[in-house]
Design brief:
156 residues, mainly beta, five-stranded mixed sheet, 1 helix, 11 strands, 13% helix, globular
């Protein structure tokens, strides 16, 4: 029997490992499903994933409404363990030194089995483009999303 047309075992093993890693990372990317809506004086805007940064104004109050759905049963990570980083530091309540001032603690409400919601109220304090990282660390792939917010001076 001829081995012509067959891949050598080391190449086949590498292809198999690469495919397994690809499938594992694709499945892990969907451990939780989040939706984000920015609500402000101008109305509502969907956030996340697009790379576009909605514009908010200093002096106004805004709210990010978040819905989270666990995409697997028996999640061991509570919604309260979701980490919010503003410019790579913890987003803290009423910290006036941060460019987006968080106005209240982030409290989650369960609205259905494996489904939660929260609303984050904040006030822009400094003009610029800012990054909010939303992170859930778990052994089922976790979750990491980057939200961008553009802050402008208040209109005259």
């Amino acid at each position: 029997m001829s081995n012509e047309g067959l891949m050598p075992k080391p190449v086949l093993r590498r292809v198999g490992c690469t495919l397994a890693l690809f499938l594992a990372s694709a499945l892990a990317a969907h451990a939780c499903i989040f939706t984000y809506t920015l609500v402000g004086p101008e109305g509502e805007t969907e956030l996340a994933g697009s790379g576009a940064a909605p514009v908010v104004r200093i002096g106004e109050t805004y709210r990010i409404e978040i819905t989270m759905r666990e995409d697997h049963a028996n999640c061991r990570i509570d919604p309260e363990d979701t980490i919010f980083l503003l410019e790579e530091g913890r987003w803290r309540v009423l910290r006036e030194t941060q460019p987006l001032v968080l106005l209240a603690d982030i409290e989650w409400e369960q609205i259905a089995t494996r489904r939660y919601t929260t609303a984050i109220e904040f006030r822009p304090a400094t003009a610029g483009r800012y990054r909010i990282d939303v992170i859930r660390e778990c052994d089922r792939g976790g979750y990491h999303e980057i939200l961008l917010i553009e802050v402008e001076e208040a209109a005259p």
